[in-house]
C-alpha cells in the first residue's frame, strides 16, 4: 500500500480509538506510526538491490511491533509532555499492525516474521495504489475534523467500510483464481503454482499466472467485461487506453507464455552468480527475458513476469554481462545502469 494511504489510515485508527487523555497527540501518533514502517525507503538511497532485499523487512515485522510501540510511546510521552504512556501504546500497536496487514493485502511480499524468517508473505487482494481504498480512508477522515463530536464513530465507520471493501476484493480474487485454476487444469504440463494478482484502477481486473516446470503463463481478465479489447494500439495511445486493452472477458482470456530457461550455457552461468540468486529470491515468476551475444560479450536478462504489463511497463529487469572467458563485465538492474 502507498505511504500516504498508510499514514492516513494511522490517523483514522487513532481517531477511532479517541483517547481523551492524549487528545490531538493521539492523531499525531497515528499519523507517525502509520508512516513509520515505510521509513525503510532510505535503503533505496544506497542501491536498488539493497532496497529490494530489506524493504518490508524488519520495519514490517509482526514480531517487532510490541518493541516499536514501546519505544515510540516513550518518545510521544517526552515530546507531548503527557504522561499517559499506555494511552499512546494502545494507539501505536493497532496502527503498526494495520500498516503490516495492509501491505500483506498486496502482492509485493512482506517479511512479517523478520528477523528470524525471510519468507515474503502476500495475500494478493489489493493493488499497491487503490483509489477506492484510499477514498474510504480520506473522506471520512476529512469529515471527522469538521464534525468533531462524531469523529470517533465516523472513523470507526471508515474502518468498517474498509473491511467490507477488502471482503469484496477477496470475492473478486476468488473468481479470478477459479479462472486461473481452470486454465491450469487444461495444460498438459506439471503445474508448480498459480496466482491471481490485483491490477490498477479496478477491483475487477486481475492478472492470472500459472507456473509450470518449463514456462510461466500470464493472462489478464476484467471480470465485468463483455466485449473483446480493440486491436493492439500504437505506443502513442494514452496510458489508460493501452491499459484498458490488456484485459479480456472471463470466457476469452488470452494467455502469453515465457520459457523459464532456454538451455543457453550463459544462462546457466548467470544463475550461479550471487546477484541472480538474490533476484530469484525476490522474484515470484522469474524467467529469462533474453540472451544476446555480440562482439565477444554475452548479456543475459531476467524479468519477473509479476510486474510485466505488455506495452506499458517492464520493471525490475536484471542483467549480467560476461566476456568470452566467462568473467562478469557488468551486472545489475537495467533501470540503474550500474556497473
Structure description:
The chain is of the alpha+beta class. It has ten helices and eight strands. It has helices at residues 3-17, 24-35, 48-54, 65-80, 85-104, 131-146, 151-185, 239-244, 265-270, 274-282, and strands at 191-198, 205-212, 215-222, 255-259, 286-294, 297-304, 318-323, 328-333. The strands form two sheets. The protein has a four-stranded antiparallel beta sheet, with helices on one face. Helix 1 (3-17) packs across helix 6 (131-146), helix 2 (24-35) packs parallel to helix 5 and helix 4 (65-80) packs across helix 5 (85-104). It is globular and about 70 Å long. The mean pLDDT is 91.
Quaternary structure = single chain
Largest sheet: spatial strand order: 1-2-3-4
Share of helical residues = 40-55%
Task: Sketch the major β-sheet.
Answer: 4 strands, antiparallel
Strand content: 15-25%
Instruction: Return the structural class.
Output: alpha+beta
Radius of gyration: 23 Å
- Principal-axis shape: globular
Count of helices?
A: 10
List keywords for this structure.
339 residues, 42% helix, four-stranded antiparallel beta sheet, alpha+beta, 10 helices, single chain
Concise description?
The chain has 339 residues and is of the alpha+beta class.
Outline the fold blueprint.
Layout: H1 3-17, H2 24-35, H3 48-54, H4 65-80, H5 85-104, H6 131-146, H7 151-185, E1 191-198, E2 205-212, E3 215-222, H8 239-244, E4 255-259, H9 265-270, H10 274-282, E5 286-294, E6 297-304, E7 318-323, E8 328-333
Antiparallel strand pairs: 1-2, 2-3, 3-4, 5-6, 6-7, 7-8
Helix pairs in contact: 1-2, 1-5, 1-6, 1-7, 2-5, 4-5, 6-7
Amino acid at each position: 500500500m502507498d505511504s500516504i494511504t498508510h499514514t492516513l489510515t494511522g490517523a483514522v485508527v487513532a481517531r477511532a480509538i479517541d483517547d481523551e487523555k492524549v487528545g490531538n497527540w493521539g492523531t499525531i501518533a497515528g499519523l507517525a506510526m502509520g508512516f513509520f514502517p515505510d521509513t525503510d525507503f532510505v535503503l533505496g538511497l544506497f542501491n536498488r538491490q539493497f532496497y529490494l532485499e530489506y524493504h518490508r523487512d524488519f520495519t514490517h515485522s509482526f514480531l517487532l511491533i510490541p518493541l516499536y510501540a514501546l519505544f515510540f510511546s516513550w518518545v510521544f510521552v517526552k515530546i507531548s509532555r503527557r504522561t499517559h504512556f499506555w494511552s499512546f501504546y494502545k494507539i501505536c500497536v493497532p496502527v503498526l499492525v494495520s500498516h503490516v496487514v495492509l501491505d500483506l493485502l498486496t502482492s509485493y511480499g512482506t517479511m512479517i516474521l523478520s528477523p528470524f524468517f525471510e519468507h515474503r508473505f502476500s495475500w494478493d487482494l489489493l493493488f499497491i495504489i487503490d483509489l477506492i481504498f484510499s477514498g474510504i480512508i480520506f473522506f471520512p477522515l476529512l469529515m471527522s475534523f469538521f464534525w468533531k463530536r462524531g469523529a470517533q464513530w465516523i472513523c470507526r465507520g471508515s474502518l468498517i467500510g474498509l473491511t467490507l471493501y477488502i471482503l469484496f476484493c477477496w470475492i473478486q480474487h476468488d473468481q479470478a483464481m477459479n479462472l486461473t485454476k481452470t486454465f491450469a487444469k487444461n495444460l498438459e504440463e506439471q503445474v508448480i503454482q498459480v496466482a491471481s494478482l490485483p491490477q490498477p484502477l479496478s477491483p475487477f481486473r486481475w492478472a492470472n499466472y500459472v507456473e509450470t516446470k518449463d514456462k510461466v503463463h500470464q493472462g489478464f481478465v476484467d471480470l465485468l467485461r463483455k466485449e473483446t479489447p480493440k486491436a493492439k494500439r500504437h505506443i502513442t495511445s494514452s496510458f489508460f487506453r493501452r491499459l484498458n486493452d490488456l484485459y479480456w472477458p472471463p470466457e476469452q482470456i488470452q494467455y502469453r507464455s515465457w520459457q523459464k530457461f532456454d538451455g543457453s550455457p550463459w544462462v546457466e552461468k548467470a544463475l550461479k552468480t550471487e546477484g541472480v540468486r538474490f533476484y530469484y529470491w525476490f522474484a515470484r515468476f522469474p524467467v529469462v527475458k533474453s540472451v544476446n551475444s555480440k562482439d565477444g560479450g554475452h548479456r543475459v536478462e531476467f524479468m519477473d513476469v509479476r510486474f510485466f504489463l505488455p506495452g506499458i511497463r517492464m520493471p525490475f529487469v536484471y542483467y549480467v554481462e560476461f566476456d568470452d572467458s566467462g568473467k562478469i563485465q557488468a551486472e545489475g538492474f537495467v533501470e540503474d545502469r550500474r556497473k
